[in-house]
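Before the break, one more example. Copy the sequence into your notebook; we will annotate it together after we see the structure.
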Amino acid sequence: MFTGIVEEVGTVVVREEQSDAAVLRIRATRVLEDVTLGDSIAVNGVCLTVTGVDGDVWSTDVMAETLSRSSLGAAGAGQPVNLERAVTPHTRLGGHMMQGHVDGVGRVLARTPGEHWEVVRVALPSGLARYVVEKGSIAVDGVSLTVSAVSAADVHEPWFEVSLIPTTLRETTLGTRAPGEPVNLEVDVIAKYVERLLGGAR
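Here is what the structure looks like once it is written out:
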């Protein structure tokens, strides 16, 4: 489990292609302070397992399913990535409970700067629109954010907006995501469970 409070921005230094997977080697500092093999680290919101550590670079295997369902499919050397270690019983839950299971890939539509923040509009897959509500939580590239505005769920191209404070703009990759760029999305899992339970009750 994760909370969407990014600990640092790391850098992909190597991508090794395999027949049905890829190995990513990522340079980091803070998330490696107490790392052991088998630990979980969220990379742009995707829960991945530490398979090796060499100095300030750690390795992880990314399966074909993850490559096809997240923006990591296009991640290459030099790309900055948001990193967060899994929560512990003593972690402050400053964001919201996240699984690190990406539900879909959205696309940045527009950025509107304000005096002290920036509003970012993101297009999302139509199948996810019903799970996104104003003032609800959503994870964008592993960052826990509050939805500040949302389109109707049944429009042809649904979208939502988030307001990014200076800390988020400065300390995560969302500060530089340009219109047209893909972002990983994880909606609130509670909404999906409620929908499933209500469907079963009917």
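The CA atoms of residues 76 and 140 lie 19 Å apart. The longest strand covers residues 8-17. Try to locate both features in your own notes.
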